[in-house]
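This part of the workshop introduces the protein records we will be handling. Backbone structure tokens are a discrete shorthand for how the chain folds in space. Once this layout is familiar, the rest of the handout is easier to follow. The record below serves as our worked example for the rest of this section.
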Amino acid sequence: MSTRRTAEMAAIFMIGDGILGLIQPRRHVDLWRSNLPAADVLVRPFADRPGRRRAYGLAQVIAGVILASQLRP
């Protein structure tokens, strides 16, 4: 798979994950909670902090759009 296609897939994931984090921050964080410490460490900073998750979601959307806009065929 080409690097550009991989970057496009990353941008799509960032945008989608960011939007879910913006509109449903508590549900989204709860869904990703895990009994595996290595996985849970990624979402723990957002637990019971919906404003923080929304801010991160907005940053994800912006970064994803910037990444996608830089890609050329």
Q: What stands out?
A: The chain has a mean pLDDT of 95. The chain has one domain: 3-70.
